[in-house]
Amino acid sequence: MKVCIGLSGGVDSSVAALLLKRAGYDVFALFMQNWHDTAGTLHGDCEWEEDRFVAEMVARKIGIPFYFVDLSTEYRKRVVDYMFDEYSRGRTPNPDVLCNREIKFDAFMKCAEKLGADYVATGHYCRKDEIPGPDGRPVYRIFAGSDQNKDQSYFLCQLTQEQLSRALFPIGGLTKPEVRKIALEADLPSAEKKDSQGICFVGKVDLPVFLQQKLKPVEGDVVEVYDAYFRDNEHYHYIERTLQGLRRDGESAPVEMVTSYISETKSLKINDPERDKAVMGNPDNEGGCSTHGIFDKKKIASLSDDDIARLSEPVQYDISFETEIYRSGKKHARKVRYRPNPYGKIIGKHDGAQFYTIGQRKGLNIGGHKDSLFVISTDIDTNTIYTGEGHTHKGLSRSCLRILPEDIHWIREDIPMRPGDIRRYRVRIRYRQPLQDATLIMRSNGLFILFDEPQRGITPGQFAVWYDGEEMTGSGVISA
Question: Does 275 reside within a domain?
Answer without folding.
Answer: no
